[in-house]
Design goal:
Elements lengths: L4 H22 L10 E6 L6 H12 L2 E6 L2 H11 L7 E5 L1 H9 L3 E2 L4 H6 L16 E13 L23 E2 L6 H14 L1 H14 L8 H10 L4 E5 H9 L3 H9 E4 L9 E10 L5 H11 L2 H10 L3 E2 L9 H6 L9 H6 L1 H10 L4
Parallel strand pairs: 1-2, 1-3, 6-7
Antiparallel strand pairs: 3-9, 4-9, 5-7, 5-8, 5-9, 5-10
Helix pairs in contact: 6-7, 6-15, 8-10
Bound molecules: fe (iii) ion.
């Protein structure tokens, strides 16, 4: 059925005038409801997260105001804002940093049946009175990468073996003060005990090809160039390079092999990116809504695909060609909560071993 143009114009005029009358009668009845919003402090900054945030806003009508910085920037900001902080949700990467934020009282523990059901016990903070302070939403694994013409795979199949004299002059890592190292050492303390891990740290220092420096990608490049024989990297850096079509990256990847460490015992060390509700959240309801959204199927996919990670929710499966080609592997049983808690002991141990 066709409606004549004239009638359409009339209808529009009528609607406009009734809204106007309604507005006068009621003061402001036709204005929209107060905007629902959420202040997000995030150390994540991946392009695909944009889609995640707009999907949440589309689904809930809650606008997200974002403050983005690296983890230290977020933690410093929360510290300086103190009780006046307007943060609702804090997202950080690495268990060591999440635990540090918990100790600084930046989180407000929450209770959520949905999060309890969806996020495995080993991927969240230990429960506190009143709820759980933080949850992991995606996981990454710390793998071993080696130069195929310098190192035998059988010499680097476990984290422990990297400290063996056979690898003298071959090992490169990032700084012993970096959370990725602190978390790995925190995990080894749980798995092998303190005395064995102290010995391991000394062995690592004795095996260094150079003083610890640079990020994970720098370690991969140094292994490819032959400056180092073997290193430790988070899976997403390696996957990113495997997917790259830059000649330098393709060339680097062709020179290196990888190991899923400790497959016979202990499993690969796992870390998380995660978050929780901020202590003085001005919008606590929206904060819980957002955290629960992050555990939903669609958000889990965004989170994992955005940075070549795995979903924390085990029922969610993502297809990542880079990981598919690398096969399945056993992961550690140690909880991220225990790993986070061990970081102070880990740092002391590394300092004493002279691990720069
Ligand atoms: Fe990283």
């Amino acid at each position: 059925m066709k409606i004549p143009m004239k009638s359409l114009i009339e209808v529009k005029k009528l609607v406009r005038s009734s809204v106007f009358v309604l507005g006068i009668l009621s003061g402001n009845t036709y204005s929209a409801e107060p905007i629902k919003e959420l202040n997000l402090y995030s150390a994540r900054h991946y392009q695909t997260d944009e889609a995640l945030y707009s999907d949440f806003t589309k689904k809930t009508g809650i606008k997200i105001n974002r403050i983005e910085a690296d983890d230290n920037g977020i933690l410093e900001r929360l510290k300086s804002e103190g009780d006046k902080s307007q943060a609702d949700v804090i997202l950080l990467v690495d268990a060591a940093r999440l635990w540090r934020a918990q100790m600084s009282q930046f989180f407000s523990p929450i209770q959520s049946k949905y999060l309890d059901e969806r996020i495995p016990l080993n991927l969240r903070a230990a429960s506190e009175p009143g709820g759980i302070p933080w949850f992991g939403f995606s996981t990454r694994a710390r793998m071993i990468v080696f130069n195929k013409s310098i190192v035998n795979k059988s010499d680097v199949e476990t984290y422990e073996k990297l400290a063996d004299p056979v690898n003298k002059g071959r090992v490169c890592t990032r700084s012993g003060a970096h959370p990725y190292m602190l978390s790995l050492v925190g995990s080894l303390i749980e798995r092998d005990g303190l005395a064995a891990t102290e010995k391991w740290a000394k062995g690592m220092v004795a095996n260094m090809a150079r003083s610890p420096r640079g990020g994970d990608t720098d370690q991969i490049k140094a292994v490819a160039s032959g400056e180092c024989g073997v290193t430790l990297v988070n899976t997403y850096y390696f996957a990113r390079m495997m997917k790259s079509d830059k000649n330098d990256d393709i060339n680097a990847i062709s020179k290196i092999g990888y190991v899923w460490p400790n497959q016979l015992a202990g499993g690969v060390h796992i870390n998380i990116s995660g978050g929780g509700m901020a202590r003085n959240a001005p919008h606590p309801k929206e904060a819980v809504q957002f955290l629960e959204y992050l555990a939903s199927d669609s958000a889990q996919e965004y989170l994992a695909n955005g940075n070549n990670e795995w979903p924390a929710v085990t029922s969610v499966k993502v297809e990542n060609p880079a990981f598919k080609s690398m096969g399945n592997f056993q992961v550690e049983k140690v909880s991220v909560s225990a790993i986070g808690k061990n970081q102070i002991v880990a740092q002391k141990l590394l300092d004493q071993a002279g691990y720069k």
